[in-house]
Design a protein that fits this description.
With 113 residues, the chain is mainly alpha-helical. It is 83% helix and 0% strand. The chain has helices at 4-14, 17-30, 33-54, 61-74, 78-110. The relative contact order is 0.10.
Length: 113
């Protein structure tokens, strides 16, 4: 199976302004111990909360409030705030691409309807 079109897509994504700016911000944040630590702590909290939800447990009000406070604090750093916004945009692009990639299979499945 040939994957060269997938690699072309990777190169196209890496060539976008969004990706380029994200890469610059990641490098900048990596050099700033306080920012890196804040972002790392936020990610760890997000993973923990997501795992709890995936296991069927509801988040407590305290956990939700703690996350919201942490997000507010982290967003005070303009580099992290911009990075989070760009990550959202890139995630949306990935979602859109996934939908597009699923179209041929979906057309086949609908032949059975």
């Amino acid at each position: 199976m040939e994957y060269h079109h997938a690699y072309d897509l990777v190169r196209a994504i890496e060539g976008t302004e969004t990706y380029q700016e994200l890469e610059t911000l990641y490098q900048k944040i990596a050099q700033d111990e306080a920012a890196r630590s804040m972002l790392r702590d936020l990610r760890a909290l997000e993973v923990g909360l997501e795992l709890k939800q995936l296991s069927g447990e509801a988040l407590t009000r305290e956990e939700t409030e703690h996350y919201e406070r942490m997000m507010e604090t982290v967003r005070l750093n303009p580099d992290i705030d911009r990075l989070l916004k760009l990550e959202q945009g890139l995630a949306q692009m990935y979602d859109d691409i996934q939908k597009i990639l699923a179209e041929p299979f979906n057309r086949l499945v609908h032949l059975l309807d």
